[in-house]
Amino acid sequence: MISAADTPRSPRSFSDLQSGSSVAGRALRWLRANLFSSISSSLVTLVLLVLLVEALLSFVRWGILDAVWTVPGSDSSACRAARGLGACWAVIGEKFRFILFGTYPFDQQWRPALAILVFIALFYLSTRRSLWRRELIYVWAAALVAIGVLMWGGVLGLPFVSQERWGGLPVTLILATFGLAFGFPLGILVALGRRSKLPAIRSLCVLYVELIRGVPLISLLFMASVMFPLFMPDGFNIDKLLRAQIAIVLFAGAYLAEVVRGGLQAVPRGQHEAAEALGLSYWQKNALIVLPQAIRHVIPPLVNTFIAFFKDTSLVLIIGIFDLLTTAKTAVIDPAWQQFSVEVYIFVAIIYFAFCFAMSRYSRHLEAQSGPAK
Amino acid sequence: MIGIVLATVLGTMIGIARLSANWMLSRLAAVYVEVLRDIPLLLQLLFWYVLMQGLPAARGAWNPVRGIYLSNRGLVLPSIPVGSGQLVVLATAVIGLVVFHLLRRRLIARQMLDGRPRRAWLWAVLLIVALPGVLSWALGVSWTITLPELRGFNFVGGLTLSPEYFALLIALVTYTSAFIAEIVRSGIQAVPRGQWDAAVALGLRRSFVLRQIVLPQALRLIVPPLTSQYLNLTKNSSLAVAIGYQDIVSIANTTLNLTGQAIEAIALIMLVFLTISLSISLFMNWYNARIALSER
Question: What is the phi/psi pair of residue A278, to 5°?
């Protein structure tokens, strides 16, 4: 990895310039170096500045000054009066419980909220390098069980809530996290299978990976929601959410397998041979020697795959599962609020952005840590 | 796919903008990339689609340049009616381009031998512009541009992009271009600094250095990840079903609902996508092998 400072045309930082006499002098020099270094550069700066100020002004006017923040009762007439002039953020206040939690029973909505917090805590713990130990697997198992208990209920005095009523952010997080938790071991197995010496296993794994990677996730989801029930015996019906979850696990497995395979290729042959010379079995060799090194190599691309994957869970909208995006889309079907979908989409976009941006920062941070300092 | 070409052009421009010495330009490009990369494509698609629907009706269409209208009926552009005569002329121009390309390689090879520069642009004008032009005049092909006109409630003439298609195109192009920008940036940054310095020391211009020295080396790193972005773009186009554009998935879905032949319909979708994906990756592998470093 080459840092930005090494490139010939990257902006120079404040401290690179000779230290000036005053702050104003330094600022002036920084301006000249980075914004007005030549005539064309100055021109670009000025044009961009004008466009930026204009865009910001109109956004501030639309989003803050002329916006409607609250409405009395559930009456959207104030919003409709401001239509075309300002945003209607009142729709968020009106609908955010539905967008976040879907049709989950209203008085029980603290449970999905708590589940979201458990998810966030779990993600946070998993990012701490000092906590990367075997115990983390147990923590994951415990957290996933806790989330199941919170969402389903039926024990500990919590009323049972069936899957059809789940919705919103918890569903998005469940699809992504469970897809990851099951897709990752599957991916490792398939990656090992692709390097197997047995032709049957190898070609099966190649076929699986290429087939899944060659088709869009949507067609897999369709297959899960339409075709899968056809192959099942009569009366045996798996829930729609679970079927989508299986499709997502299969999809994730294929992509993660390719990432892990890249890592496996980076482990030198000598490591395999040394492990075999010690008399370790195939599984011992892979679990103790090869895989830990392989996965360490591919942590940044793994995080990138997770990000892509988190965004892809939004596709379940098409088969009608109530994830975050679907609840947002459903929320604005209400005739009173129909015209304000832009605001709702912005709200949901901010949630997705927060999760993905945090992950991409983390991946950048990992890359900076593991790469040799240049 | 128009999307691939547009996304590549936009992505390359933004990738280079991120490396610009101009602080404002590079920051803005970085914000563009971060925002677009971290929001699901489906959400962006719905967002653009809603914006399209919020546009004024055809009568009050937004009309920035004469002949271009943007309204809730979609984007209307001026068009040139293409018949068989026009096709012949265009085909001649394309053949001229190919011939010129081969000729230029011959000329450069001869320049390598004796060191005398040879003028290629004369041939370019002759083959690409003059020859098709003469042919067009001889055949009497007309190149009138039809401007769209507002009649009643809709537009007549011109080329209309439906709002669904236009939203899909914007969403796919901007989303993919953010990824391509990152690929281009990392590719260019991976070219050693010495290459820049050496080229500048030879007294070459910056734009020349970028085009002739840095980009060809960066391409070797750029092409493999670019291939997978093209594949993603192709697969992502199936999201059109979410906003009701009649692409293959949506048509197959309708067929499925009408006939109940689920297995056949879905097998058809998968077959089509597998064919497209495999042909793109074959082409890109061929291109990759061509530009790869040929070591002695």
Answer: -75, -5
For residue A294, the tally of other CB atoms under 10 A from its CB is 23
Compute the distance between CA of residue A342 and CA of residue A332 in angstroms, rounded to an integer: 10
Hey, is B58 helix, strand or coil?
A: helix
Cβ contact B273–A311 (<8 Å): no
Tell me if B284 sits within 8 A of B278, measured CB to CB. no
What does the block give as tokens for A258?
């390719």
CATH label of the domain that carries residue B56: 1.10.3720.10
Residues in A 266-325 with any Cβ partner in B closer than 8 A:
307, 311-312, 314-315, 317-318, 325
Q: Which two tokens stand for residue B13?
A: 């421009």
How far out from the chain centre does Cα A221 lie?
18
Indicate yes or no: CB of B23 within 8 angstroms of CB of A7: no
Provide the Cα torsion A340, A346, A351, A353; round to 10°. 160
A372 neighbors A6 (Cβ within 8 angstroms): no
- Interatomic CA distance for residues A247 and A241, integer angstroms: 10
What DSSP line would sit under A55-80, residue for residue? HHHHHHIIIIIS-B---STT--HHHH
Helix axes A90-101, A169-194, angle to 10 degrees: 50
**Cα separation of A166 and A102, whole Å?**
6
Q: Do the beta carbons of residue B215 and residue B188 sit within 8 Å? A: yes
Residue B64's CB is within 10 A of a number of other CB atoms, namely 7
Domain of residue B167, residue span: 2-81+144-291
Dihedral of alpha carbons B73, B79, B83, B84, sign: negative
Cite the beta strand spans of chain B per DSSP E: 69-71, 74-77, 149-151, 154-156, 159-161
For chain A, the C-alpha Rg in angstroms (whole number) is 26
* Chain B partners within 8 Å of A8 (Cβ): 193, 196-197
User: Contact at 8 Å (CB) between B247 and B269?
Assistant: no
Q: Does A372 reach chain B within 8 Å, measured CB to CB? A: no
Q: Which residues are B69's β-sheet partners?
A: B76
Nearest CA in chain B to A221: B266
B37 is a domain residue: yes
Q: Which residues contact B278 (CB under 8 A, 6 or more apart)?
A: A214
Which residues in A lie closer than 8 A to residue B43 (C-beta atoms)?
314, 325, 345, 348-349, 352
Cβ-Cβ pairs closer than 8 A, A with B, add up to 137
**Residue B43 counted as domain residue:** yes
| CATH classification number, A97-370, choose in 1.10.3720.10, 3.40.30.10, 3.40.50.620, 1.10.10.10 | 1.10.3720.10
Nearest residue in chain A measured CA to CA from B256: A226
Kindly determine whether residue A353 and residue B54, on different chains, have CB atoms separated by under 8 Å: no
Structural domain boundaries in chain A: 4-62, 97-370
Per-residue pLDDT of chain B (296 residues; tens, 9 = 90+): 566 667 777 777 777 777 766 777 777 888 888 888 888 888 888 888 877 776 666 666 666 666 666 666 667 766 666 666 677 777 777 887 888 778 877 777 777 777 666 666 777 777 777 777 777 777 766 666 666 666 655 666 666 677 777 788 888 888 888 888 888 888 888 788 888 888 888 888 777 787 778 877 887 777 777 777 777 787 777 777 766 666 666 677 777 777 766 677 777 777 777 777 777 777 777 776 776 665 54
Q: List the single residue in A with minimal CA-CA distance to B263.
A: A227
Angle between helices A324-331 and A169-194 (to 10 degrees): 150
* Closest residue by Cα to residue A340 from A78, A106, A56: A78
- Is A371 touching B (CB cutoff 8 A)? no
